[in-house]
Design brief:
Mean pLDDT: 80
Number of strands: 0
Order of helices and strands: HHHHHHHHHHHHHHHHH
Structural class: mainly alpha
Oligomer: single chain
Low-confidence stretches: none
Distance between the termini: 55 Å
Helix content: over 70%
């Protein structure tokens, strides 16, 4: 009877210096990107990006004569220049306050409608069977290439005939119509990544399509829906072209009101500066409040 012969394999490790020397220059650069110096640089870039916002905030807290005499950075040497008189005058300006309310009345419904309708349509295109589903989805994707400028005059004529021209409702409907193709495209692709087994298990438990959508799909699609809401909110809030065409003096948003103030009263910087800051800071606050969901929604399709 033969006895088994044991053989041992000795692994030879290369010296650390040899491994490092074998790495390419690109790999070594990437390996150093997680260091503290890079983080400091990113913080500095972020602060540099916020300089215009900080400058506008400080300008809105200075008197008009101080702004005419020196730059906003002089306030660090003379903090006594800071005052809230400009915001007091802003609240007394009926055009600005009314336009700020109009902006909210336009942005909130346009964002909510796009998110709700886009979610329902995205779920239908992803998981419901109906005749011509793929062709209808291709038609929706094709609407993404239609520029807004092409539809301004035809829709303005249509709104004039039905009595919607110059109203808040007309602006909301325009933004909803042009926001839905992107919403359906984004959410359909996200919902299609949900495991089929999860939906089938819910159906076996007796869940209908509505309950399946509200209890399973919507919670899983939270990051994508939050990203869509941020995109739509920022687009509608900062819009000026559509508002210039479809609104009148009673329904104009803050972007049009500030442009009108510049055209009519070019020297009232004490009203324009705080108005512009309020118009800027609200979208920034919304973005920073939902930045975690925004990043999760953007990266959701990258990792399965």
């Amino acid at each position: 009877m033969k006895t088994p012969v044991r053989t041992s394999v000795k692994t030879v490790e290369a010296p650390v210096g040899t491994v490092r020397a074998g790495r390419s220059l690109g790999a070594r650069i990437v390996g150093r990107l997680g260091g503290g110096a890079v983080r400091v640089c990113l913080v500095l870039v972020g602060l540099f990006w916020l300089v215009p916002t900080i400058g506008l905030l400080i300008s809105s807290l200075r008197a008009p004569e101080d702004m005419s005499a020196s730059g906003w950075w002089k306030v660090f040497a003379e903090p006594s220049q800071l005052t809230v008189d400009s915001y007091r005058k802003l609240l007394e300006n009926g055009d600005i306050t009314g336009s700020l309310l109009n902006t909210v009345l336009i942005t909130v419904p346009a964002t909510v409608l796009v998110v709700v309708i886009g979610s329902l349509a995205g779920y239908a295109f992803a998981w419901m069977e109906f005749p011509g589903r793929d062709w209808w989805f291709l038609a929706v994707v094709g609407l993404l290439v239609v520029p807004v400028q092409v539809a301004l005059i035809p829709i303005a004529e249509l709104f004039g005939k039905v009595g919607l021209f110059g109203s808040v409702l007309g602006v909301v409907l325009f933004h909803v119509g042009f926001g839905l193709p992107f919403a359906v495209f984004l959410l359909r692709n996200f919902f299609a990544e949900i495991p089929r087994e999860l939906l089938e298990a819910a159906r076996l438990d007796g869940a209908g399509e509505l309950r399946l959508f509200t209890r399973v799909v919507m919670p899983l699609g939270g990051p994508a829906i939050a990203s869509l809401g941020i995109f739509q909110f920022l687009w509608v809030w900062n819009d000026m072209l559509v508002a210039l065409v479809f609104t009148d003096a009673d329904s104009q948003p803050i972007t049009v009101a500030l442009q009108t103030q510049v055209r009519q009263f070019g020297n009232n910087i004490d009203v324009l500066a705080p108005g512009a800051f309020l118009s800027m800071v609200i979208p920034l606050a919304v973005f920073f409040a939902f930045q975690r969901q925004f990043v999760s929604g953007v990266m959701a399709g990258a990792v399965k």
